[in-house]
Specification:
The complex is a heterodimer of chains A (496) and B (361).
Chain A lengths: L2 E10 L2 E11 L4 E6 L5 H8 L7 E6 L2 E3 L4 H6 L2 E4 L11 H6 L10 H15 L14 H14 L4 E5 L7 H16 L3 E6 L2 H7 L2 E6 L2 E6 L5 H9 L16 E11 L4 E10 L3 E5 L6 H8 L7 E6 L2 E2 L5 H6 L2 E4 L3 H5 L6 H8 L9 H14 L15 H10 L7 E5 L7 H16 L3 E5 L3 H7 L2 E6 L2 E2 L3 E2 L5 H8 L14
Parallel strand pairs in A: 3-8, 3-9, 6-7, 7-8, 13-18, 13-19, 16-17, 17-18
Antiparallel strand pairs in A: 1-2, 1-4, 4-5, 9-10, 11-12, 11-14, 14-15, 19-20, 19-21
Helix pairs in contact in A: 4-5, 12-13, 14-15
Chain B lengths: L1 H28 L4 H13 L2 H26 L7 H19 L6 H28 L5 H21 L32 H20 L1 H11 L1 H6 L4 H28 L10 H11 L4 H25 L5 H24 L9 H9 L1
Helix pairs in contact in B: 1-13, 2-12, 3-7, 3-10, 3-11, 3-12, 4-5, 4-6, 4-10, 4-11, 5-6, 5-10, 7-8, 7-10, 7-12, 8-10, 11-12, 11-13, 12-13
The chains are: A alpha/beta (496), B mainly alpha (361).
The complex binds adenosine-5'-triphosphate (ATP) and magnesium ion.
Chain lengths: 496, 361
């Protein structure tokens, strides 16, 4: 299907998210949409898929102007979208979710649907069990389910908003193969991302958005430098590693053990010095998340001791950890980190210890303005957090942290962020390291682990390597460990 | 922003209009000429000094229960046990006064102690619902509902059992207290300025609490996202519990005032539906304390006015209830429609700093 967006405008208050965007995508094309955080990519896609309405502008499908007012309208016209943040999936079976949204009688043809599901899944090489429950699926599998569902509903143009965040490398390969196959069948693919390597490897053409404007288009062969300049209006480069500041430990783990109903992490010992950065690598769910939450006091440990900021905090509550200078930032920013419906000022007031009974809003507002400027958040003190783009939410979370901190624990600190935001976030984190804060972070991005850590712990189904020197570690070696190979050299003693 | 406010108002006015249309239909169907019926309601509510006094008398318990509900709502809790909390407040007040009435303590002190007992009683009953929720994992809706039944049963047991009026135990309640144990009222009426003053004070305090205090802000954070509030350092379950306690205390005060200010005894159904009505008011004003007082006033005026319908047109006086619930339903519906068509959620409250920023500019 030929998809054409004509002169799309959309503003949110003072923010101009889309400014006169015109884009034509012929059938059978994989069109990349590139842009930094807050560039307006999701907004444009939501307009095309009926989740939002443009202030003005038109949508033309196969040469015919259409009016799309809801996702249901969109799918009727053949446009389907996979969202950036996987929308809530109710705990229902895969096959029921598949049928959901289908027009027709009360009793949809279950058998027929099941047959279609199987056929479609086979066509793309997705191995989904129709009887398993959706909440047990990984992000990648949910994506696969969503693709099948949209196709079955008759989608001829498919929008993918940052589909490669949070899925494994293998799933990514599968996804790309599926996308290529879809394009060969004449479907139109809109692929939103800020990861250059994904776009370069996959897309037939690329459109770049910056601050609401369509600033350029490119075709292969791409040059990374050119794309980066279009995205940011300047060229940028990563900061460098700064070695351990020295001068004492901020965290000592002594034979720490944690477990949940699936996984046991046993006897981890670790001594983190001031200003040091420890990266936790491993496939999603290998124990690093559990470990991180144990060190933050959110999960009770079952053995060993935790000394942080010079105090024995074993068995203490999360708030006790927090009082002793241990901070934790969750990956799910809007679910766990920020309070939707409250604005930035209110967040800053919340994050400081109360200074009396009544709130001094003047002071709160001033604090908010100062931090917003200091952390380059695109927003105002009165912006509600849900109106910020992903990258700005992450900046806001960092801005909320109190001073001084002994230890900062981060889950996927740059998940979903573009290069510039990633570099910016890390520059802020490194600033903290210089002041003596130690950082432990987990990430599924191997380059991030190797680039920013001083030492690395690799997790594989609950097993942990001793701390490995990041500067000696090679990407392929790390990849093997994550996949469970090459662990023999660590079997002699206890781990770590 | 300006535009939004007008759109909001438009939708709310629309809802109001539809509610009026539907009630007009109901009136017509019931055989009452609608416009005369409205006129007689208006006259019934504001036509005389007496009726205005009646409105003021019922306004104060409704203000109190609404104030309480606003607190628990802000904390994200559906405390529908307000009715029972008010009842238990009344029981505690009666108990305390029965205990002290024959002592040599000055009457004023007995009244004060009675009211304090009511406050404590309501808070305890709410704490029970809170504990069931926080420690037992019982949804506060079920807990509240169950405790409402228990409170009613307890009242009836006391009225017909241990505290029964000597000789005749009846639905009219326990033996009234001596006159000196009544809250002073305006001469010739049963309107107590003390009761009215306390209620207005309470709603004003809740308004301030939710707008301008750390406690209120933290409560709202817990209500909107407990996980994030916890990570930001708010002790969440303590705040939930505290919201229950405060709401219960206000409901208990409402019960106490019914006993010492109006009824002067304990009778079944002393809470008189004020708890539920408070929930309706809170929903109608979308949990903004500022609007709660006038809307509560409007609701009791409807109640008072609709008595005329019963007299003039033999209509059931529950007509006011129909109108009130319709209003709430339609306003919520209007809000749903607005969100659908405009794709933006109404903010629970215009945030404080937003207002600040405007002033600063
Ligand atoms: N519902 C909303 N209300 C107010 N502002 C919004 C809303 N949605 C988006 N915005 C603003 O519009 C701008 C564009 O946001 P959008 O989500 O389209 O960016 P994006 O390119 O998808 O960024 P990211 O890579 O971070 O996902 C941002 O400044 C954002 O703050
Ligand atoms: Mg986006």
């Amino acid at each position: 299907m030929d998809v054409e967006l004509r002169d799309i405008y959309k503003t949110f208050g003072a923010v101009r998210a889309n400014v006169g965007i015109t884009l034509r995508v012929p059938a059978g094309t994989i069109q990349g949409i590139l842009g930094e955080n807050g560039a307006g990519k999701s907004t444009l896609m939501k307009i095309l898929s009926g989740f939002m309405r443009a202030d003005s502008g038109g949508i033309i499908l196969d040469g015919r102007p259409v009016s799309i007012h809801s996702p249901a309208d969109a799918i009727r016209c053949g446009v389907g979208m996979l969202h950036q943040d996987p929308l809530d999936f109710p705990p229902m079976r895969v096959i029921d979710n598949f049928i959901l949204g289908r027009k027709g009688g009360l009793l949809p043809g279950q058998a027929e649907a099941a047959r279609d599901f199987k056929r479609l899944a086979e066509q793309f090489g997705f191995s989904l069990n129709p009887d398993s429950y959706v909440d047990a699926l990984t992000v990648g599998e949910r994506q696969q389910l969503e693709i099948l569902r949209l196709l079955w509903l008759g989608a001829r143009a498919l929008i993918f908003d940052e589909p490669t965040t949070g899925i494994s490398a293998a799933q990514k390969e599968k996804l790309f193969a599926a996308l290529r196959l879809l394009a060969e069948q004449g479907k139109t693919i809109l692929f939103v991302s800020h990861k250059l390597e994904d776009v370069e490897g996959l897309c037939h053409r690329v459109a770049v958005l910056r601050q609401g404007y369509l600033v350029g288009e490119a075709q292969p062969p791409y040059t990374t430098k050119n794309l980066v300049e279009m995205m940011f209006g300047k060229s940028i480069s990563a900061g460098e590693r700064n070695p351990c500041a020295g001068g004492g430990s901020t965290l000592i783990l002594d034979n720490l053990s944690v477990e949940d109903y699936r996984l046991k992490v046993r006897d981890v010992s670790l001594d983190v010095c001031r200003g040091e950065v420890i990266g936790l690598a491993g496939m999603e769910g290998s124990g690093q998340g559990l470990f991180l939450r144990a060190v933050s006091g959110m999960v009770r440990t079952v053995g060993g001791r935790i000394l942080a900021g010079g105090k024995d905090l074993t068995g203490k509550s999360y708030h006790a950890f927090k009082r002793n200078g241990v901070a934790f930032l969750p990956a799910a920013r809007l679910e766990e980190g920020l309070v939707s419906g409250l604005n930035l000022t209110e967040h800053f007031v919340l994050s400081e210890p109360p200074d009396g009974f009544f709130i001094n809003w003047e002071q709160g507002g001033a604090l908010a303005r100062e931090r917003i400027a200091g952390f380059n958040v695109k927003g105002t003190p009165a912006s509600t957090v849900e109106s910020l783009s992903g990258g700005n939410q992450q900046r806001a979370l960092l801005a909320l942290l109190r001073d001084p901190l002994a230890l900062l624990l981060l889950e996927h600190p740059t998940r979903g962020l573009d290069i510039e935001s990633t570099i910016y976030i890390w520059s802020k984190l490194k600033e903290r390291c210089k002041q003596g804060t130690s950082i432990i972070f987990m990430s599924s991005d191997l380059d991030e682990i190797l680039q920013y850590s001083d030492r690395v712990l690799v997790f594989f189904s609950g097993r942990v390597t001793p701390p490995l020197d990041a500067s000696m570690l090679k990407t392929d070696k790390l990849g093997q460990l994550i996949g469970g190979k090459g662990w023999d050299e660590f079997t002699t003693g206890k781990s770590a | 922003m300006k535009k939004n406010i007008w759109v909001n108002l438009g939708f709310q006015a629309g809802a109001l209009l539809v509610a009026m249309l539907v009630t007009t239909g109901i009136l017509a169907a019931a055989g009452a000429p609608p416009f005369q019926a409205y006129w007689s309601m208006l006259k019934g509510a504001f036509g005389s000094w007496d009726s205005i006094v009646t409105i003021l008398i019922s306004w104060s318990p409704l203000l109190l229960t609404t104030a309480g509900v606003l607190i628990t709502f802000s904390a994200g809790l559906w405390n529908i046990g307000v009715e029972g909390q008010m009842g238990v407040g009344a029981i505690f007040t009666t108990g305390m006064m029965l205990l002290l009435q024959d002592t040599s303590l000055p009457p004023a002190l007995i009244i004060i102690l009675g009211i304090l007992a009511g406050i404590i009683g309501g808070a305890l009953w709410a704490a029970l619902a809170g504990a069931l929720k926080v420690f037992g994992g019982v949804n506060e809706i079920f807990g509240g509902l169950g405790l409402n039944f228990v409170a009613t049963a307890l009242t009836i047991y006391l009225v017909f059992g241990p505290w029964a009026r000597p000789g005749v135990a009846s639905m009219s309640g326990t033996k009234p207290f001596e006159r000196e144990l009544w809250l002073p009222t305006l001469p010739g009426t049963s309107l107590s300025l003390w009761a009215l003053g306390l209620s207005i004070l309470a709603i004003a305090a809740v308004y301030l609490l939710l707008r301008g205090t750390h406690f209120g802000l933290r409560l709202k954070a817990v209500g909107k996202n407990p996980k994030a509030a916890f990570l930001l350092g708010v002790p969440t379950w303590q705040y939930s519990m505290f919201a229950f306690l405060l709401c219960g205390a206000l409901a208990g005060l409402a019960g106490a005032i019914q006993v010492v200010g109006l009824r002067h005894n304990l009778l079944p159904n002393i809470s008189n539906g004020y708890g539920f009505l408070g929930l309706l008011v809170a929903m109608l004003v979308n949990y903004q304390a500022l609007w709660a007082a006038p809307v509560a006033f409007f609701f009791v005026a409807l109640n008072t006015g609709s008595v005329q319908l019963q007299i003039n047109y033999k209509m059931d006086s529950s007509f006011a209830g129909v109108l009130q619930s319709l209003l709430v339903l339609l306003v919520l519906l209007g809000e749903g429609a607005r969100q659908r068509f405009l794709g933006t959620a109404r903010k629970a409250e215009p945030s404080e700093s937003e207002i600040r920023n405007k002033q600063v500019k």
